[in-house]
Design brief:
Length: 323
């Protein structure tokens, strides 16, 4: 730590009082890292330091200067620690912009070209499939299938553009059903989506556009989900086990996007007060946030980051008391 045996000996009586209270001062200061000082130990050591600072003279100046210099360097220490664990701030914005550029400049033109290809499709087999599914379905599943059937109409071929628009509606309904926990509805709609895709994928460029759009959307969604990883109520916050399963099955780019989104949240949390470690520490004392951080970046990295943030929060309290 940032203290020596000589310093301990010179303040032996105050340290003894602290130790007698059942606390190990060396262990505590070690936990604070190289910037730790005796004045960070609340109780007798800190009271002694405050008294020295109040007396004036050389000793007081030494204490104040040490505190001031440590305080000035706090923002860079905190940011460096978070950056080394979660990556530099701004990564989420850059990644999101890159995905949007891919959509706008590559996949969207491909989609537009495919939609306006002038191709028409015989979709009677899809209509028959929906009728068959609907006859055995009930409730919301039947309502969803009947709604899609109305879009197809009773007869006639359908243009690539209209079939694409129906696909968008079916996909949105699947996504909503999944979020609502309606697995049965999502599964039945998935059968319709598969038949639609078999038609549309024959249009030049459509399959490439679809796959590219899906991949970029997955990354953008992961950024948003990562940003909300540490927030939310007891009802809406993501469970650590769900996050663990998600990260286990996600692709490397999606996992990276989650971390970048979470890093952006940390930046926004601390705001312009970059040295406000107490605010960041408080975030990881809520719910399962420390566990979720470990899932995102690894246990060792998470422990290091939280240790530094807790130390900086302690320094901030000491700085306010001494100065």
């Amino acid at each position: 730590g940032g203290f020596s045996r000589k310093a301990i000996n010179k303040t032996a009586s105050k340290v003894k009082e602290y130790q007698d209270s059942g606390q190990d001062i060396e262990q505590y200061l070690d936990s604070l890292g190289d910037e730790g000082m005796l004045l960070d130990a609340e109780g007798s050591p800190q009271s002694m330091s405050m008294g020295l600072a109040a007396m004036g003279g050389t000793g007081a100046n030494v204490v104040r200067n040490a505190v001031i210099n440590r305080s000035l360097a706090a923002p860079s220490r905190i940011v460096d620690t978070i950056d080394s664990t979660m990556g530099a701030s701004g990564g989420a914005r850059s990644l999101n912009n890159a995905q949007q550029k891919l959509k706008d400049e590559t996949f969207s033109p491909l989609y537009e070209s495919a939609k306006n290809s002038g191709q028409f499709f015989d979709v009677n087999n899809i209509r028959s499939g929906i009728v068959s599914q609907s006859s055995d379905a009930v409730g919301d599943v039947r309502s969803s299938l009947n709604s899609i059937m109305r879009d197809f109409g009773d007869e006639g071929d359908i243009s690539a553009l209209k079939l694409h628009n129906i696909r968008v509606e079916v996909y949105d309904q699947i996504k909503k059903a999944t979020m609502d926990g309606a697995g049965g509805r999502a599964a039945e709609l998935g059968k319709v989506l598969k038949q639609i895709d078999q038609k549309l994928d024959t249009v030049d460029g459509y399959a490439t556009a679809k796959a590219g759009w899906a991949a970029t959307s997955d990354i953008q969604d992961a950024i948003d989900d990562g940003f909300g990883m540490f927030s939310g109520s007891a009802k809406t916050a993501m469970d650590p086990e769900d996050l663990r399963d998600l990260m286990k099955n996600a692709s490397a780019p999606v996992r990276d996007a989650y971390v970048k989104g979470a890093r952006q949240y940390m930046r926004n949390l601390m705001g312009t007060a970059r040295s406000d470690a107490a605010k960041a520490v408080g975030e990881f004392e809520k719910g399962f946030n420390a566990e979720k951080l470990a899932i995102l970046v690894g246990q060792e990295e998470a422990d290091t980051m939280i240790k530094v943030l807790k130390a900086e929060a302690a320094f901030s309290r000491s700085n306010a008391d001494i100065r």
